[in-house]
């Protein structure tokens, strides 16, 4: 594989972490898995002995020709992005960065993806393989070249969004993609109903759109691809040029919209494509439509049940991004139905029999 200059501390502490897990498993001691800790707001608080993965960092291998990179979980996202950019490549799922300490392990564990998600895919779609520290403190490799799973589970992809409740991510292999040759962002003045209709129309056409959002009377679009395709679409749509920084600010929740008023909590509504506006008692200015309308950020003091009931009617779900201690919902994630909860409990029991990995992070009961 082609070697690349390392942009982060290159240190492998997998054996030390495995020993800590092994001891916790023996003593049945709960562990709170942390690294950059910039995503601590996402999910329920965890009580347990800290298992810090931050020092387990560095790029293990990178082959730009094969579009594959393997990186340790504690590696900072900024370092990995810089390394990929040197070869004009990127992580296609555009993971949010919530501070300089944000790590790639945290990005995968929370399963978060940026504005490109509907057009490129989610974090789990680009995970080729992992090295995971299991409950017994064993360091096992899944996916990738080995293509081996345990008990029929695709564990590598299951780690995306599991919030460390199934094991400790040590190394992760990703499929990466070239940075598009051309890029142009634009804004169009347009009301909400017209914007949703426009997005539905554009979605049926082979256009180089890689991000689409609406807020406060403006539709925002990002065009990426070949020079001729981007130029032709730009001329067709018109509008006013938009700084590319807009998408980074939206991705990382640095846009002014994300400032909360007293009593408000931030909610993320996940909905099927082309879902019309929901019947919520929320001012239009307090809703930001992302992912072409499939992801909606809502600032509100409405009860969790009200938001979740409306989302459920539309075939979606709602997640609270504001911690309970700061006025958010006690249960940030939508409660599981009986069937899904049964499978979740069975999976947790098999991969974390003593409940040592981030207990209560997703749901209070496990």
TrEMBL record:
Its EC number is 1.1.99.14. Residues 1-179 form the FAD-binding PCMH-type domain. Keywords: FAD, Flavoprotein, Oxidoreductase. Gene3D superfamilies: 3.30.465.10. It is an enzyme of class 1 (oxidoreductase). InterPro entries: FAD-bd_PCMH (IPR016166), FAD-bd_PCMH-like_sf (IPR036318), FAD-bd_PCMH_sub2 (IPR016169), FAD-linked_Oxase-like_C (IPR016164), Oxid_FAD_bind_N (IPR006094). GO terms for molecular function: glycolate dehydrogenase activity. This is Glycolate oxidase subunit GlcE. It comes from Vreelandella lionensis. The gene is glcE.
């Amino acid at each position: 594989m082609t070697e690349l200059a390392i942009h982060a501390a290159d240190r492998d502490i997998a054996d030390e972490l495995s020993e800590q897990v092994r001891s916790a498993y023996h003593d049945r001691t709960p562990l709170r898995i942390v690294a950059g800790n910039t995503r601590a707001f996402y999910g329920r608080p965890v009580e347990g002995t800290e298992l810090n993965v931050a020092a387990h960092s560095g790029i293990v291998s990178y082959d730009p020709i094969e579009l594959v990179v393997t990186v340790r979980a504690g590696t900072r996202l900024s370092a990995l992005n810089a390394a990929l950019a040197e070869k004009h490549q990127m992580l296609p799922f555009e993971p949010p960065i919530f501070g300089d300490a944000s790590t790639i392990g945290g990005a995968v564990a929370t399963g978060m993806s940026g504005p490109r998600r509907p057009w490129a895919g989610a974090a789990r779609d680009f995970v080729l393989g992992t090295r995971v520290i299991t409950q017994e403190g064993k360091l096992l490799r899944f996916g990738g070249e080995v293509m081996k799973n345990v008990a029929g589970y695709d564990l590598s992809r299951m780690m995306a969004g599991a919030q460390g409740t199934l094991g400790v991510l040590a190394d992760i292999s990703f499929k990466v993609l070239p940075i598009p040759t051309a890029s142009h962002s634009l804004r169009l003045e347009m009301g909400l109903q017209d914007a949703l209709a426009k997005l539905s129309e554009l979605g049926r056409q082979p256009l180089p759109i890689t991000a689409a959002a609406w807020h406060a009377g403006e539709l925002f679009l990002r065009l990426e691809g070949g020079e001729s395709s981007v130029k032709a679409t730009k001329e067709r749509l018109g509008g006013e040029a938009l700084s590319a920084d807009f998408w980074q600010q939206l991705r990382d929740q640095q846009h002014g919209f994300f400032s909360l008023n007293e009593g408000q909590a931030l909610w993320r509504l996940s909905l099927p494509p082309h879902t019309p506006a929901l019947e919520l008692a929320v001012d239009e200015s307090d809703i930001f439509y992302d992912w072409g309308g499939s992801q909606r950020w809502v600032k509100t003091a409405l009860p969790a049940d009200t938001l979740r009931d409306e989302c459920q009617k539309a075939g979606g779900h709602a997640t609270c991004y504001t911690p309970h201690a700061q006025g958010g919902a006690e249960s940030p994630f939508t409660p599981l139905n009986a069937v899904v909860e049964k499978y979740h409990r069975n999976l947790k029991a098999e991969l974390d029999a003593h409940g040592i990995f981030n207990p209560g992070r997703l749901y209070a009961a496990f």
